[in-house]
Amino acid sequence: MSQSKLKKLNTVLTVVITLFVFYLGLSFILFPASQTPGVGLPTWPSGDGGGFLVMKGIREFSMGLVLGALLLTGHRRALGLALLMEAVAPFGDMINVLAHHGSLAAAFGIHGLTSAFIAVTGALVLRETGRATREAGAPAAAPPPPAKVKS
Fold first, then answer.
1. Calculated CA dihedral for residues 15, 19, 25, 26, nearest 10 degrees
2. What distance in Å separates the CA atoms of residue 75 and residue 41, rounded to the nearest whole number?
3. Which residues 6+ apart lie within 8 Å of 113 measured at CB?
4. Between vectors from CA 148 to CA 144 and to CA 151, what angle results, nearest 5°?
5. Within 10 A of 148 (CB to CB), how many other CB atoms are there?
6. Contacts of 62 (CB under 8 A, 6+ apart)
7. d(Cα 132, Cα 2) in Å, to the nearest integer?
8. Cα separation of the two ends of the chain
9. Tell me: the pLDDT tens digits for 57-107?
10. Contact 67/21 with Cβ under 8 angstroms?
11. Helix, strand, coil: what percent of the chain each, to 5?
12. Nearest partner of 123 among 2, 4, 25, 9, judged by Cα
């Protein structure tokens, strides 16, 4: 795959992830009770658990801000690293759902796949930046040495 095609693919994947993270964050901030069944946990927390879900929403939203800022400023290597780090959040959510005897389908199908998708996208962005660095840093072909003239 050419460098420009890889960069376009990575940009599209990152935009999809960023928009999805913004959507999740806003959903948990604005409608915490309606988002709970979708995360795979078996029960609503006792008492007023809405505050914890709003915290989850703020976490998601801030993760989207980081990705958006790196994407808009063109810091591709930092973007790849941030994607890899942010893949830990859905992985942690998967572990949490499993630890609380929640839905296996949600744990693996939602959180596990999301984590894998974000991690693969991060790895692709890092691959793109590594390739660009190698291509930019490769020395130009040196001209052949001058022919020795026999005297």
1. 150
2. 36
3. none
4. 170
5. 6
6. 25
7. 11
8. 52
9. 899 999 999 999 999 999 999 999 999 999 999 999 999 999 999 999 999
10. yes
11. 75, 0, 25
12. 9
Distance (Å, rounded) from C-alpha 104 to C-alpha 137? Answer: 47
- 10 Å Cβ neighbour count for 140? 5
Of 72, 70, 56, 73, nearest to 122 by C-alpha is: 70
CA 131 to the chain's CA centroid: 20
Q: What is the pTM of this model?
A: 0.80
Q: What angle do helix axes 3-30 and 76-86 make, rounded to 10 degrees?
A: 50
H or E stretch at 135: helix 113-137
3-state SS assignment for residue 146: coil
CA 144 vs. chain centroid, Å, equals: 46
Nearest to 7, CA basis, from 63, 80, 100, 56: 80
